[in-house]
Amino acid sequence: MVKKTNLCVASRLSVAPMMDWTDRHCRMLHRQFSREALLYTEMVTSAALVRGRAVHLLEYSPPEHPVALQLGGSDPGELAEAAAMGAEAGYDEINLNVGCPSDRVQAGCFGAVLMERPGLVADCVAAMQAAAGVEVTVKCRIGVDDQEPERVLPDFLSRLADAGCSRFTIHARKAWLQGLSPKENRDVPPLDYPLVLRMKERFPRLHLSINGGITSLEQTKGFLDSGLDGVMIGRAAYHDPAAVLGAADVDVFGCGEVVAPEQAARAMLPYIAAHLAEGGKLHQVTRHMLGLFTGRPGARAWRRILSEGASRPGAGVALVEEALAAVGALQTTD
Question: What are residue 209's DSSP bridge partners?
Fold first, then answer.
C-alpha cells in the first residue's frame, strides 16, 4: 500500500509537466534522485481519456509516488470524469492545465486561453473535486496577451479559491497567444517573480508555487525563504537532473542523501530490464538519461553510445553498462 503523501510538503519542489518529456520512464529516473519531490505527468486531455478511452495514458509505476496527473480540457463534466479516472488509477493529485499556449490547445479552448474565462475554470475545478476525491490543483500563467496581470491574477486566484482550489503553481510569465510560438512563450515574455510573491502576501492561506526560468536548488531555496510554498522546475530538471534533483532531498526536504548520477543510472538497470522483458524498447527509457553526466568527463561518450545504440534491434542493459563504463561509472554495489 502506498503511504499517504503530504502534498503540501512534496510540492516544496516539483518537476513540471512537459509534453513528450515527463512520461513514466522520465519520472522513474527522476525518482532515483529524489524520493520526496512531486512529479507530474505530461498533460493528458480529458477527451483522450473520456472519449478516446486511452487509459494506457494513466499507466505509471508505484515507486513514482508522489505523482500528479495533469489534465487539459474545458468541459466540466468531461474533466470530472477524467479526474475520477485519474483518482481511481491512484494519482495523488489532479492538476488542471491553465498555462499551455500551443495553437492546438487554444483551438480546444483549454490551456492558457482559459485565463480569460475564470468562471469556467472555477466550474471545472468544482466538478473535478466533487468527482475525484483527491486534491485538485491548477497550474496557470500570470495572464495572457493584453491582460494586466496585477489585476487579472488576483481575481483569477480569488475565484478559484472560492470554488475550493487552495494550491496553485504560477508560471511567472504572460502567455502571448497571438504572435509567439509555444517555444517563444517559454522564454520571450519577461518573468515577473515579484508579482507571484505579492500574490502570496495577498493570499497567505493559499499554497502557491512558482515556476518559470528556475534552474537551480539555490534559486529554489531563495524562493522558499522568501515565503513561497513551493518551486516547480522544468527544463533544467530534465536536461541536468543530477544538478537539480541530486541534492534535493537533503537541501529542500532535510532528509535522505545526495544521489550521484552513476547511482541513479545503476538504479535504473532493473527497471530497464523489466521494461524490455515486457516488450518495451531501450530508447524509450534511455532518451531521458542522456543528460545524466552533463559537465563530467565522458559525458559525450555516454550520450553517443546511448544515442547511437539504444534504437538498434536487441539493444539492452549491456549497452547502458557500456555507456557507464565510458564515464568510469560501472561499479558494483556491496
Answer: 169, 230
CATH of 7-251, one of 3.20.20.70, 3.20.20.210, 3.40.50.720, 3.90.76.10: 3.20.20.70
Q: For 27-65, how does the pLDDT look when each residue is reduced to its tens digit (9 = 90+)?
A: 999 999 999 999 999 999 999 999 999 999 999 999 999
48 DSSP β-pair partners: none
d(CA 205, CA 122): 18
Residue of 8, 26, 100, 255 marked active site = 100
Give residue 196's identity as a one-letter amino acid code.
Answer: V
Please confirm, yes or no, whether 26 is among the known catalytic residues: no
Distance of alpha carbon 142 from alpha carbon 152, whole angstroms: 8
Under 8 Å CB-to-CB from 203, ≥6 apart: which residues?
Answer: 154, 157, 158, 161
One-letter amino acid of 5: T
Q: DSSP states of 143-173 as a string?
A: -BTT--HHHHHHHHHHHHHHTT--EEEEESS
Residue 205 has a CB neighbour count (10 Å cut-off) of: 6
